[in-house]
Specification:
Elements (H helix, E strand, L loop, with lengths): L6 H25 L5 H24 L6 H27 L7 H23 L4 E4 L2 E4 L8 E4 L2 E8 L2 E8 L3
Antiparallel strand pairs: 1-2, 3-4, 4-5
Length: 172
């Protein structure tokens, strides 16, 4: 098995590089540009988010869909994962682990798992492509679905390299 074959391994590597890039931007913003802590933090997280989106889109999940909608879905995934992270931290903070790094680790593991599965199955999904009124599922299996609208029938045939749409009038 190739070392980077599974998307979860690539996702973790992107996350590690994302942390390094974000920290580097924060450091540069503080030390070289004299920004405040809040401004430096915002700059670091913005650059790191875009870095993570780009690498996860191209390398981790090999997504070829529209960039704008993928970016929006990825932002939603990250926001949901962060909210879950905060919930776990708040819940663990009130337990016996108060003041422990285990609280933060619990939140981080929650964020990482939710963000990975959200990115894989929602933001960068390969199993669902939507184009107008036609929905194509499981493109790898060359699935064909007739779509009927306004007396016309359209068939979407997927061959390995292109999408072919043929329309014919239904008689009778």
């Amino acid at each position: 098995m190739k070392p980077f074959h599974h998307s979860s391994v690539r996702y973790v590597l992107v996350g590690l590089s994302n942390t390094a890039v974000g920290f580097a931007v924060i450091w540069l913003a503080l030390r070289c540009f004299g920004l405040s802590n809040v401004a430096a933090n915002m700059a670091g997280y913005t650059v790191a988010f875009l870095w993570s989106f780009s690498l996860n889109r191209k390398w981790t999940f090999h997504h070829t869909g529209a960039i704008g909608s993928g970016l929006f879905r990825y932002l939603l995934v990250c926001l949901v994962a962060y909210a879950a992270n905060l919930l776990v931290v708040i819940l663990l903070e009130h337990g016996p682990s108060k003041g422990s790094l285990l609280v933060q680790i619990g939140g981080m593991l929650t964020y990482t798992a939710l963000a990975y599965f959200g990115a894989r199955y929602f933001a960068f999904s390969k199993n669902r492509v939507t184009s107008g009124r036609m929905e194509i599922l499981n493109a790898r299996q060359h699935w064909i679905r007739p779509v009927r609208h306004g007396g016309n029938e359209a068939r979407v045939d997927l061959d390995s390299s292109r999408l072919v749409v043929s329309r014919r009038s239904r008689s009778g």
